[in-house]
Design a protein that fits this description.
The structure holds 2 protein chains of 2 kinds.
Chain A: E1 4-14, E2 19-28, E3 31-36, E4 45-49, E5 54-57, E6 59-64, H1 77-86, E7 89-94, H2 105-118, E8 122-125, H3 141-146, E9 151-153, H4 162-173, E10 178-181, E11 194-195, H5 198-203, E12 207-208, H6 210-227, E13 230-233, H7 239-250, E14 255-259, H8 261-265, H9 287-299, E15 304-305, H10 314-317, H11 334-343, H12 350-365, E16 382-392, E17 410-420, E18 423-427, E19 430-431
Parallel strand pairs in A: 1-4, 1-5, 6-7, 7-8, 9-10, 10-13, 11-12, 13-14, 14-15
Antiparallel strand pairs in A: 1-2, 2-3, 5-16, 16-17, 17-18, 18-19
Chain B: H1 13-29, E1 44-49, H2 54-66, E2 70-75, H3 87-96, E3 101-106, H4 111-116, E4 122-128, H5 134-145, E5 155-159, H6 166-177, E6 181-185, E7 201-203, H7 206-209, E8 215-218, H8 223-227, H9 234-241, H10 245-248, E9 256-258, H11 271-274, H12 281-301, H13 313-317
Helix pairs in contact in B: 1-5, 1-12, 2-12, 5-6, 5-12
Classes of the chains: A alpha/beta, B alpha/beta.
């Protein structure tokens, strides 16, 4: 591995510095050494021509299920990190619904150690809000925060108790950590298989109405206002929820939100063939919802694109629709989906896409080494991609799983290189380990 | 003819008429002393039933046997399914055994769709969860046609738990395809508003609808739905939506009473109403065999009996030259 790499004539998109144009970038000893046109290459420097390629700060995912410990038949930290690197990510927030649950320092430390051993991507473990995700008693939040946890969530076990949610937000305020919620009222969504609407009726599948999400979003925003705590609404899916977040933020509530690539691209009507890869949680919703999500992402009400990468074993998805677990993998397709579905049609500029996939999620997690700026003395966490490369999504993936909602789709934009602290984790599209 | 019958929406008006016309000729076979024709000799039909259903399974079994097909009944309980074999592995096993058609009854909506992606055999949906029951809709159309010359403008009220009824889904769409006017009747908790997109009307008032009906079609009330509070009590449901003797009087003289069975006498239909001449519920059962014969025949042979080129339905029913 050369100590120095010079990217020649790359299109650097770096919202943190405002850079959006052709330049050379020199990487040396894990850091960005120089940015500017016509850099001269010092001795023993590998020069990589990068015409037509875009460089951005490495992507940051707020929401990925790496499944280890406990569900290594679906994914491991190593394979999840390989998928992340292949998708241009340099940092991933790992969800706590492992077995054992990440509700204590030991599990968090184990996940972090596994990621360091793999060396493909930084993993920032999230921890549960409540012990065992049981919704009954809070985890030792301060101890976990000292161990580096920045985000607490019970994820798919949405915290139903208003009292505990209030206390979590209140307690978290003293630690400056984020309480993230997968907003879903357990009773309104009981038995759900998809979004409630015409298509659930036609397909005979039990629906969860958008309101199963928005009533919890409304409650949580009220509690964030009450407590001053930081709320993150993860994978928001309904137009009503977006309106609530927008209004609350305008009123000064400390709330952020993310949306998945699949909710930005796909609709409930796509379930007509009962493809279990399209069974996701929260469910794919209607065109109006998707359009509202796109608009909210563009205006910034929704801060980030997060994958909700949810790998499952093939035999788990190859079942009757109601038996198949919800979820799609997403780390390897997220950037291309955003480029194809949002940037190409003009909903987002390239700089806004990088902002929503790197800068803002890094800020939400407080990751100072990620999200740029791409400037001298900064850690070289970078992605280089070809925005024009077309490809068809097909198995196998770098992930162990193949339950991808975008299988068979033609997408535009492909990761060429990913660098983690100056080391190639992916080079010419191939993971380095 | 279609390869799989997963949803009634796959069938055009012409397809449906062809199935009904062919069924009419098979109906006669059931009246003979020897109720058998050789149309599917050497073919294997598997009844794959993941849900208890005596009447539909027997109906398909008789239909296949009257066409001289070999029939395998594969039901849960005592099979490898009970040992935890997946639907996919079961399907591949049946495929390996040379099934030509798989008739699937399953409690999961979409099970037939999913199965059809794994096998080369024809898949016939014999009821999937709360999705569809297309052969029930076809036999209902056949039964209605015995009394009304045309479906055009035919006024049909479907009463009860539309939300959870696969029969209502298939029948509504079949009737609308054929030009009928469908009103779905029940409390709002059981009649989702989206059904208007199928071209049906919605009413919450059975008494207002009854005088305008040619067919009053009652759906089975599942007591489980009361436990889930879709309606407050069976008693209240019966008072408002049960077809009582008094309510029958509000129907026009020519109107039929239908029910897919099994009935809850005294709940959605009064016992004496079920036994009226205008209640054609046993005709529905008898016609089910002929309609399923027609479907199996058309799907597995394309309507061409062995050695014969495009025989008339009556000829096929008579066994071609066999």
């Amino acid at each position: 591995m050369p100590r120095r790499v010079l990217f020649r004539a790359v299109h650097l998109v770096d919202p943190a510095s405002g850079h959006d144009g052709l330049t050379d970038v020199l990487v040396e000893d894990g850091l960005v050494a120089a940015v500017g046109p016509g850099l001269s290459a010092p001795a023993r420097t590998e020069v990589l021509p990068a015409e037509g390629l875009v460089m951005a700060p490495g992507l940051v995912d707020l929401h990925a299920h790496l499944r280890e410990p406990g569900f290594e038949h679906k994914e491991t930290v190593e394979t999840g990190c390989r998928a992340a690197a292949a998708g241009g990510y340099t940092a991933v927030c790992a969800m706590p619904n492992t077995d054992p649950v990440a509700d204590n320092v030991a599990v968090v430390a184990e996940v972090r150690a596994l990621a360091e051993k793999a060396g493909l991507c930084e993993v920032v473990p999230a921890a549960a809000i409540t012990q065992g995700l049981a919704g009954e008693s809070l985890v030792d939040m301060a101890e976990l925060a000292e161990a580096g946890v920045r985000l607490f969530t019970d994820d798919h076990r949405c915290l139903q108790s208003s009292r505990l949610m209030r206390l979590a937000l209140e307690y978290a305020r003293g630690l400056d950590v984020v309480i993230a919620q997968h907003a879903q009222d357990a009773e309104l969504s009981e038995g759900w298989q998809m979004h409630e609407g015409y298509h659930s009726t036609a397909l005979g599948l039990t629906g969860a109405p958008s309101e199963a999400e928005s009533v919890v979003v409304a409650r949580d925003l009220a509690l964030a206002r009450l407590t001053g705590g930081r709320l993150h609404v993860t994978h928001v899916s309904a137009a009503e929820s977006v309106e609530l977040v927008r209004a609350a933020r305008a009123g000064g509530v400390r709330a952020t939100a993310d949306v998945t690539p699949h909710h930005l691209a796909l609709l409930d009507e796509d379930l007509a063939g009962y493809d279990t890869n399209l069974k996701v949680n929260p469910p794919l919703r209607e065109r109006e919802d998707r359009d509202a999500l796109r608009a909210a992402l563009a205006e910034g009400t929704v801060d980030a694109v997060a994958t909700d990468h949810a790998p499952h074993a093939e035999e788990e998805k190859e079942q009757e629709f109601d038996l198949a677990p919800p979820g799609t993998i997403g780390l390897e397709t997220a950037l291309a989906v955003v480029l194809t579905e949002l940037v190409a049609p003009g909903h987002l500029t390239l700089a806004e896409a990088v902002d929503r996939m790197s800068v803002r999620p890094a800020a939400i997690l407080g990751l100072e080494e990620h999200g740029g700026p791409v400037a001298p003395e900064r850690p070289a966490n970078l992605v280089v991609f070809d925005p024009a490369a077309e490809w068809v999504v097909a198995a196998p993936f770098r992930s162990m799983a193949r339950n991808c909602a975008f299988l068979g789709r033609r997408l535009r934009g492909r990761v060429v290189h990913t660098l983690l602290r100056g080391e190639f984790t992916v080079r010419d599209g191939e993971p380095m380990r | 003819m279609i390869k799989h019958l997963l949803s009634i929406g796959q069938l055009s008006r012409e397809d449906i008429l062809r199935i009904l016309d062919t069924a009419a000729s098979f109906r006669e076979v059931g009246t003979r002393v020897i109720k058998k024709v050789p149309a599917l000799r050497g073919r294997t039909v598997v009844n794959l039933f993941y849900e208890p259903s005596t009447r539909t399974r027997i109906s398909f079994e008789l239909a296949a046997k009257r066409l001289s097909a070999d029939v395998i009944n594969f039901t849960t309980g005592g099979t490898s399914v009970a040992k935890g074999e997946s639907l996919k592995d079961t399907a591949l096993t049946l495929q390996a055994m040379g099934a030509d058609a798989i008739v699937l009854r399953h409690s999961s909506s979409g099970a037939a769709h999913i199965l059809s992606r794994w096998v080369t055999a024809s898949v016939i949906n014999a009821g999937d969860g709360t999705h569809e029951h297309p052969t029930q809709a076809l036999l209902d159309l056949f039964t209605i046609r015995e009394h009304f010359p045309s479906f055009e403008g035919l006024r049909v009220g479907i009463v009860g738990d539309v939300r959870h009824s696969r029969v209502a889904r298939s029948l509504t769409r079949a009737l609308v395809t054929m030009g009928g006017q469908v009103t779905l009747v029940g409390p709002p908790t059981l009649v989702p508003p989206e059904v208007v997109l199928w071209g049906a009307e919605v009413s919450y008032d059975l008494d207002a609808v009854l005088p305008k009906l040619d067919v009053c079609y009652l759906l089975r009330v599942q007591r489980e739905r009361q436990r889930q509070q879709f309606f407050p009590s069976v008693r209240e449901y019966s008072r408002r939506y049960g077809l009582t003797r008094a309510r029958v009087e509000a129907l026009p003289d020519q109107a039929l009473v239908m029910h897919p069975g099994p009935m809850n006498r005294g709940v959605e239909i009064a016992s004496e109403v079920a036994d009226l001449p205008r209640a054609v519920i046993t005709d529905q059962v008898a016609n089910g065999i002929a309609v399923r014969m027609s479907l199996l025949y058309l799907m597995l042979t394309g309507g061409e009996a062995r050695g014969a080129s495009a025989p008339e339905p009556a000829e096929a029913a008579a066994g071609g030259r066999g």
